[in-house]
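Quick log. Single chain, no ligands specified.
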Amino acid sequence: MNFNGDAVRAQVEKILGSPAFANAGLTGPLLRVVVQNALAGQPPLSGRTAEETRDLQGRLQSYYADAGKDDPVLIELSENECRFTVQTKTERQMPGYQPSPGRKLFMFVLCLVALIALWVFYFFAPK
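-> predicted structure:
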């Protein structure tokens, strides 16, 4: 993955200034340290509690769901460690339209009714 370290640092500062990280306690500095270590080529932080990692992941998800949805740099934290990944906007996979299960069922029933109507019309129509 190619990314600019300055762009990543700027993204971290933008994230830390967002409402998602207001009153974040030690979570904000943890994000900064994890990113700085990774950019310097140092191993990920160990000894962090699962609660700290989950809190940081939740805050990042909250940020990208709201204020950061159009940001060009996406920072994600891995599930098991304090290790992050960075994607540029062009690398992101934008999810396509996925109809709800109810809509799928409605369309299936509608097609089934149309097929039955065609069958009835074809076989029982006066000739």
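The beta strands are 73-77, 84-88.
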